[in-house]
Amino acid sequence: MRPFMIAAGTALTLVTLAACEPQDELSGRADFRDYCAGCHGADATGGGPVARALGLQTPDLTLIARREGGAFPFTRVMSVIDGYTRKDQHGSKMPAFGPLLDGPKVMLEYENGAVTPTPAALVALARYLESIQR
């Protein structure tokens, strides 16, 4: 009886996580539209209206994985968004995303095995970007 309960609990957890995935994508897509599309374009291929007005060239965010040899650098993408690794990136034109980072946290396991509280909106945005890779 006990192994069944564990298996049932595991299945329930997997179903619950799977059910959250579309919500993550919707949330990430909405945050992209609100925070990123002005510079990176509604389709994330670069050249949004704000970037054009400022004379900036922005990268095609649908090609991140391709530029990285086929693997989407999830942690690095989150670091660029939150500003941790972009001190001088884009000529310091990319704004800070305080509201995006101040909300609820989720526990996220990183490549090195560390599990760290991470802003849920940041994770959702990175998952959205991962989902639009060509």
Global shape: globular
Provide the spatial order of strands within the biggest beta sheet: 1-2
Count of alpha/pi helices? 6
SSE pattern: HHHHHEEH
Our Rg estimate from Cα atoms comes to 17 Å
Q: How far is the N terminus from the C terminus? A: 46 Å
Number of distinct beta strands: 2
**Chain oligomer state:** single chain
**Poorly predicted parts:** 1-20
How much strand content do the residues show? 5-15%
Count of structural domains: 1
Helix content: 55-70%
Structural class label: mainly alpha
Mean pLDDT comes to: 81
Q: What topology emerges from the helices and strands here?
A:
Blueprint: H1 2-40, H2 49-54, H3 64-67, H4 74-82, H5 98-101, E1 105-109, E2 115-119, H6 120-131
Antiparallel strand pairs: 1-2
Brief rundown of the structure:
The protein is mostly helical and 134 residues long. It is built from 6 helices and 2 strands; from the N terminus they run H-H-H-H-H-E-E-H.
List keywords for this structure.
134 residues; mainly alpha; two-stranded antiparallel sheet; 55% helix; globular; disordered N terminus
What does this 3D model show about the protein?
With 134 residues, the chain is mainly alpha-helical. The radius of gyration is 17 Å and the shape is globular. Mean pLDDT is 81; it is low at 1-20. The chain has one domain (2-35, 62-131). The chain has helices at 2-40, 49-54, 64-67, 74-82, 98-101, 120-131, and strands spanning 105-109, 115-119. Helix 4 (74-82) packs across helix 6. Strands 1-2 form a two-stranded antiparallel ribbon. The protein has six helices and two strands; from the N terminus they run αααααββα. It is 55% helix and 7% strand.
